[in-house]
From TrEMBL:
This is Response regulatory domain-containing protein. The modification 4-aspartylphosphate is found at D67. The keyword Phosphoprotein applies. It comes from Novosphingobium olei. GO terms for biological process: phosphorelay signal transduction system. Keywords: Phosphoprotein.
Length: 130
């Protein structure tokens, strides 16, 4: 499937259409993936920090939706690296906003449960041309 910004090569995953979703719940991740794919995006799923690091290796992303608390830690370092590379980042959390680790509070955040269509709309709005 080709997404926004794709031109030609069917096997390519252009950065303009690739979204990183880091979410420990596979069912939630699949729901988000479905919403984004319906809008033409290619989605890379990761359920842990380790998996996210593997997905990020050698790739760039148009945007990222990151679950704040994962089984193997917090996403702070990943969020900062993505943001430093120019990737818009949003944090999705079941925790109260005041318990989000320092450094993550500067990113847009969504309180769980949040509809996948709301997250997809954030991606679309964030990537829309000015």
């Amino acid at each position: 499937m080709q997404g926004p910004g794709a031109e030609g090569n069917e096997g390519a995953k252009p950065a303009l259409s690739r979204i990183l979703v880091v979410e420990e719940s596979i069912l939630v991740a699949m729901e988000i993936e479905e919403e984004l794919a319906a809008r033409g995006f290619t989605v890379e799923l990761a359920g842990s920090l380790l998996a996210a690091e593997e997905r990020m290796r050698g790739r760039t992303f148009a945007a990222a939706l990151l679950d704040c608390h994962l089984p193997d830690g917090h996403v702070l370092e990943i969020a900062l690296r993505l943001a430093d590379a120019g990737c818009p980042v949003a944090i999705v959390t079941g925790s109260q906003v005041d318990t989000i680790p320092d450094g993550l509070q500067k990113f847009p955040h969504f309180q769980k449960p949040v509809p996948a269509r709301t997250l997809a709309k954030w991606v679309m709005d964030t990537l829309a041309p000015c």
